[in-house]
Amino acid sequence: TTTAPAKSAAQMQDFIKSYYADVTDASKRDQTWAELTPAMQAKAGGRAGYEAFWSTISKVDVHKANADPATGVVTAELTFHLVSGGTSDETHQLGLVSGGHPYLINSDARV
User: Fold this and answer.
1) At a CB cut-off of 8 Å and minimum separation 6, what does 11 contact?
2) pLDDT digits 0-9 by tens, 48-94
3) pLDDT value at position 2?
4) How far apart are CA 32 and CA 95, in angstroms?
5) Is residue 26 classed as helix, strand or coil in its secondary structure?
6) Distance from the first to the final alpha carbon of the chain
7) For residue 31, how many C-alpha atoms fall within 13 Å in the half-sphere facing its CB?
8) Which of 107, 82, 102 is nearest to 92 (CA)?
9) Alpha helices in 35-99 (DSSP H)
């Protein structure tokens, strides 16, 4: 079974900030894809769905990231900048599990 990582809140927050900084760079998308669990990869629509979605986003600003190491959840306030020119302000709760470097994203829920 997979359990919540026994890491610090700061490490969890840094991981999420790094993920969103890298995911909009197509040359780093192999790395960010590998930072998702198989369940999250499936939820993203497989690699094709993941590429299709992220190709529409030019960058993501992480305004705030609050981590709860006990549950493995990071609540992040985000602004998605669309390639088409618009923006979308969203709050996401991302569930992290150990097994990556140092984590994998196992869930993503917009709240």
Assistant:
1) 102
2) 999 999 999 999 999 999 999 999 999 999 999 999 999 999 999 99
3) 53
4) 15
5) helix
6) 26
7) 14
8) 107
9) 38-43, 46-54
State the DSSP code for 36: B
- pLDDT for the residue numbered 5: 44
Q: Which residues contact 2 (CB under 8 A, 6 or more apart)?
A: 37, 97, 98, 99, 106
* Amino acid letter, residue 55: S
CA dihedral (109, 104, 65, 54) positive or negative = negative
Average pLDDT, the chain: 93
In a 13 Å sphere around the CA of 110, the CA atoms on its Cβ side amount to 6
In this predicted structure, what is the pLDDT of residue 1? 46
pTM value surpassing 0.85: yes
The single-letter code of the amino acid at 65 is A
Q: Which of 58, 70, 71, 78 is nearest to 16 (CA)?
A: 78
**What distance in Å separates the CA atoms of residue 18 and residue 8, rounded to the nearest whole number?**
15
What's the alpha-carbon Rg for the chain, to the nearest Å? 13
Shortest CA distance to 15 belongs to which of 1, 38, 36?
36
